[in-house]
Amino acid sequence: MTSTLILGGARSGKSRRALTLAEQASAQRIFIATAQALDDEMATRISHHQAERGAGWETVEAPLDLAEGIALASQVGQVCVVDCLTLWLSNLMHHNRDVAAETERLCAELNQRAGEIILVSNEVGLGLVPETPLGREFRDAQGRLNQAVAAVCDTVEFVAAGLPIKLKG
What we know:
Blueprint: E1 3-8, H1 14-24, E2 28-33, H2 40-53, E3 57-61, H3 66-73, E4 78-83, H4 85-94, H5 99-111, E5 116-122, H6 133-152, E6 155-160, E7 163-168
Parallel strand pairs: 1-5, 1-6, 2-3, 2-4, 4-5
Antiparallel strand pairs: 6-7
């Protein structure tokens, strides 16, 4: 089975690209959500994403235990969309989890998955250097996470202005 990582900036079209690829597969569609509705803005974003997906999707919530969520949802005849690694990383950092260990767990699970998987992640290292130590720590962790996942994925795309650019595969 194949694995695809889709990178891009905020509102670049990466989630739409992931959904389009998944809908092209003749498989049961599973959406693995990492977001948590901790405030009204995030609740609105989640509702927007749910409406964008439409019917025909099963949702698995995995805000912290993403490797486990993938293990439960990744079977032959299924296509999973993980949206997104950036929120997952934020959740891990917020809960003081070991990011390196969780990244290793995720990559190990991706290497043994049974079904097709498409992961969405933000590329946050293309802009200004964050002003705060926490912002710089997050940017660096996101870059390391993206590199690790890209290394184990079959295909990697970068989306800008809704247009995919193939980086690997």
